[in-house]
Design a protein that fits this description.
10 helices; 7 strands; 42% helix; alpha/beta; 248 residues
Length: 248
């Protein structure tokens, strides 16, 4: 099996594509691509059975309704607690599910800068759809939304404090990851993962894609699928790291 993990940013310069090959109880990072523009992202997708992209696939339903009502001067005065009302606009269903389950709040695609990356991603998803492959935002297809911090927490690894200038923490996380997954070979890209958190997150996204392909993930319930298919649904693994190499 081959999986691809993409740490997707608003700009190609901060976007990294990781290609992982799975065989004989081992996983090997074959290639890291960066910078990666939209064409590079789209061109990489046919090479993998599973693709995990670290970016929101949609916006909260309530936020969309709010913006349309505001545009049309039809927004009612909120009857709920103002803070709770704003929270309902800011976070998707999947954000709330992850926050409740893992006590880790994802960024708000409606109010944080990650929305810029989501805008770029929407055009990539449109190109994929126009190319003939539908993207199931609820996680039912080959291409899925992932959240590395949630996976790291599930796997008992440090999930905060390794970004940006925190090189020592990032290098320690690489050590911890390799100790927990001795079957993972970063090869010549180990130094890049220690240097650049985008590269490391791309590799983690590729690991999550493997968990999804094997069926080890939290799927939306029957009552959540419709909303998740509009807003997006983050794939959170339900297995330990070792289970990623226990199946073909």
């Amino acid at each position: 099996m081959r999986t691809i993990g993409i740490d997707f940013a608003a700009q190609p310069s901060n976007t990294v594509i990781a290609h992982l090959a799975w065989d004989g109880g081992r996983a090997r990072v074959e290639l890291l691509v960066s910078p990666a523009d939209d064409d590079a992202v789209i061109a990489s997708l046919p090479d993998a059975e599973a693709v995990g992209i670290d970016v929101p696939f949609g916006w909260p339903d309530a936020f969309i309704d709010f913006v349309v009502q505001h545009r049309d001067d039809a927004q009612p005065r909120p009857s709920a607690d103002p803070d709770e009302w704003r929270r309902g606009l800011a976070y998707r269903l999947t954000d709330r599910v992850v926050a409740d389950a893992l006590r880790k709040q994802p960024l708000s695609v409606a109010t944080d800068r990650i929305g810029l990356a989501a805008m770029r991603a929407s055009s990539v998803l449109a190109a994929i759809r126009e190319g003939g492959e539908p993207v199931d935002r609820a996680g039912g297809g080959r291409i899925v939304e992932v959240y590395p911090a949630a996976a790291l927490k599930v796997w008992g690894l440090p999930y905060t404090g390794y970004k940006g200038v925190n090189a020592d923490a990032r290098s320690a996380l690489v050590d911890d990851l390799l100790a927990a997954a001795p079957w993972l070979d970063l090869g010549i890209f180990a130094a890049e993962c220690r240097r650049d958190d985008n590269a490391l997150d791309a590799v983690i996204a590729g690991l999550i894609a493997r968990a999804h392909a094997l069926g080890h993930w939290v799927a939306p319930t029957a009552g959540q699928v419709a909303q998740a298919s509009r807003e997006g649904w983050m794939i959170v693994p339900t297995c330990e790291l070792g289970a990623l190499v226990e199946s073909p």
